[in-house]
Amino acid sequence: MNHFPGGPERRRLGLDARITRRDFVNGTLVGAGAAVLGASSSAAAVVSKSARLRAASEPATGAPPPAEDTFTGYGGVGDYARANGNTWPVVQAAHRLRDGEYDSAALAHAKAAGDFDLVVVGGGIAGLSAAHYFIKATGPGRRVLLLENHAMLGGEARQNEFVVEGERLLGPQGSNDFIVPERGNGSLLDSFFAEFGLPREYAWQSWDARLRPLRFARDNYSNMDGFQESQVDIGYFFGTAGWRRNIWANALAETPFSSSARRDLLRWRANHGPMSEAESRRLDTLTYKDYLEKVCGYDSAVTRTVEPIVGLLSGVSTDAACARLGRQLVEAPDRAMALSFPGGNSPFPRALLRGLLPDSLPGKDFSTLMYAPVNFESLDRDDQSVRILLNATALRVEHVNGDSGRHPLAVTYERGGYLFKAGARAVVMARGGWINKHILVDMPSDLRAAYDQFSYAPALIVNVALRQWRFLYDMGITACRWFDETDGIGYCCNIRQNMITEGHSPALHPDRPAVLSFYMGLPIPGLPAAVQGATSRAKFLATPFPDFELRIRRQMMSLFASHGFTPERDIAAIVLNRWGHARLIEPPGFHYGRGGRPSPLERVRQGYGRVAIGHSELNGAQHWGSALEYGQRAGEKAAALL
Ligand SMILES: Cc1cc2nc3c(=O)[nH]c(=O)nc-3n(C[C@H](O)[C@H](O)[C@H](O)COP(=O)(O)OP(=O)(O)OC[C@H]3O[C@@H](n4cnc5c(N)ncnc54)[C@H](O)[C@@H]3O)c2cc1C
After folding, report:
1. What is the pTM of this model?
2. Which of 24, 87, 72 is nearest to 390 (CA)?
3. Which of 45, 188, 382, 530 could form a disulfide with 106 if both were Cys (CB 3.0 to 4.6 A apart)?
4. Of 342, 301, 300, 391, whose CA–CA distance to 495 is shortest?
């Protein structure tokens, strides 16, 4: 943990400035609980009061997490303000479930909550997709219950919202970029865009021709090495060797890299193109580090340079991630620029929500899809066939009475400290395996064995709302990458050129507010894949918000202080989005299976009984399209079970 500075450093870092970041203590808990307590006061059973989060049961290191909510931090404004990443109440509930701390007698006496044709667990893109395609397959009128444990839908595709100097700004919490599907190519994504009337061409913030020319990414990945420097102005910070700009444009000539590192970095960057199936299978058998150093024979500087990018995108370091994933994720320079909506991929779940419950997001146009406040009252009405419960944590799914009853599945969930039980004809689990393992109490042993091979790694996305960003402008950059292997945090950040709509077009100007986004994984080279994930997650859970805030401020100072950055003046708000299980880790042999045995992914995709499993992780590398696809498959499978 960090030692909190006093005196001059405190002032320099702007820690006493009046910003919207400190009104969070227990805020999430109070808000989420209060919203549902009234509604459920007649419920029969109460959760074990003795339940406590026990970090000790996380394998490995790290002090226990704080008992108070010094974890979540300020969440911005608007509908997503109490759902920034995994919030403390959600983490606590999930860990109670993992640690078996729910009182079994209480579980048995949960209050009846009605019967449904389908219960969906998880309100991310996959869960909403499952509900949508289930209804498409069965026709309207089927009773569907969707449970989401956060205060807002969208899962990893949620957004942060800020109001700075009167300007409303959005930033992604996680899921961020997308590529527009080609019209009429027959893909699921093409038909999704068509069905929900999503535009395929967009307007972008304009750049005043009187200002110096500056190139921006339109997402938060293009600025990462090996991607699209040719389209973005990027500053590279080499510590004591100082800053260089757009290093790839002149073949790394002015960088402090050694000549062999330069040569091999350029070779690495030129090594791209589609992978054949045979190549993909071959690369699945070794680590990316071995591929880079032993197969390609590159200088180890290549490995060090790509390490944090692989750490973000795969969850673990190059010596633990398989080479197939490394090549697929980072060796794709200068492809067409990926795009993002102002709030990242949040319009996708919002479109699905609007499709399921049109009153939830009044309006039909693209602007209201992105910006309209959700009509929360419309989510759960007695008279509608589709009902969505927020702040509702599924605890247990089991088959009851064989297949004889009309609703042969029982789904128990907690909401506002009370337990409820719904009957279901089919269930879709639209969430990751680390929780499914605990909820699906009657899963067959081969499915459990498959899930036992799944491990996960965390990621952290920090959105810093700036009042102005002239310090970047003066440096001639809109993104930066740093190579600090000591006490720093993260490795890159950028501001985007935002998509605009008729109702919403904030100015892109160095003296106007903008969101600076930091994307980072937390890999620990040298440790086995699963241990890396668990160890970094334990540390990540034990780190209070103020510690992260301090590290972000120090990082920004070390990068920008000499270019006019003044935290007290420039920072309006800091929001952390923590994703404890951001990535399903894919070590060698995981994706295609090892020693003649199939991949555990194959077994999990099959589900069992009346339970269909549909989550983006079933693709391996997760993206919004795989969430939509596996949600669709699970929804249609559930429909076939009726
Ligand atoms: C940091 C980060 C960056 C990413 N960037 C991109 C990107 O740029 N582009 C891209 O396409 N993809 C990106 N992704 C991938 C992302 O996983 C997918 O795009 C997609 O959002 C995943 O949707 P999902 O529905 O499968 O899962 P999730 O979004 O994880 O949804 C699962 C939902 O289930 C809920 N839940 C969990 N447990 C319970 C319970 N017990 N009861 C009730 N509800 C529960 C969760 O709260 C969550 O809302 C990123 C992911 C992360 C973490």
Report:
1. 0.92
2. 87
3. 45
4. 342
